[in-house]
Design brief:
With 204 residues, the chain is mainly beta. It is 5% helix and 32% strand.
């Protein structure tokens, strides 16, 4: 018996798929498994922790970007010369963009071994240095981008975020990619990040 794999132009018949459109009952549902890993179940503990995802609203620069000096500040401001924000600005905190902060539960891994154990060190001008490779895993609906930031916050003994939030460190997302499975459905997001060093008095 012949099977027409392409519809239309030659035979006019509808194509027959070699694969089912839904998962079989004995297949692993990666999305569900990931949610249970992060949130826990009645039998398993929560293995995720809470962070803040700082989403940049890149359609709008903060008012401090290239601020033009007036009055007494006419010569102290950069007068649109350097293309940079005010590091002490109360709205953007030195980011240069308007942003929103969202609370998400994630899983974090550090994949780089301690110095000397994996041969992954990099030669710099002054020494050999080890660069930590940190990965964050998000749920399928989060849709992080390379413009966003991840902020580590303190969690209590029950796994809940301490309020008001106690911010500890901030990470730049260098790569955000979805892991897709059956029919291209996104099961979770994987983000590689780099820790941002806060200099010149800048705070979170």
């Amino acid at each position: 018996m012949g099977m027409d794999l392409w519809p239309g132009t030659i035979t006019g018949k509808k194509a027959t798929s070699l694969y089912t459109r839904t998962a079989n009952s004995n297949e692993i549902n990666l999305r569900q498994e990931f949610h249970e890993l992060i949130d826990g179940t009645g039998c398993e503990p929560q293995r995720g922790h809470w962070i803040l995802l700082r989403r940049m609203q890149t359609r709008q620069r903060c008012s401090c970007w290239n601020r033009v000096g007036v009055g007494d500040s006419k010569y102290s401001d950069d007068n649109r010369k350097y293309d940079e924000p005010d590091k002490d600005h109360e709205v953007c905190g030195g980011e240069g963009w308007i942003y929103n902060e969202e609370l998400h539960k994630v899983r974090r891994r550090i994949t780089t071994p301690p110095p000397g154990q994996g041969g992954l060190e990099q030669q710099a001008d002054f020494a050999i240095m080890n660069v930590p490779y940190v990965i964050y895993y998000f749920k399928h609906y989060v849709n992080p981008t390379e413009l966003d930031r991840i902020i580590e916050i303190d969690n209590d003994e029950d796994g809940n975020p301490i309020r008001p939030f106690v911010k500890r460190s901030i990470y730049d997302i260098t790569m955000a990619e979805p892991f897709r499975d059956l029919n291209g459905r996104i099961e979770y997001w994987r983000c590689a990040v780099k820790k941002e060093e806060l200099r010149y008095g800048r705070t979170l």
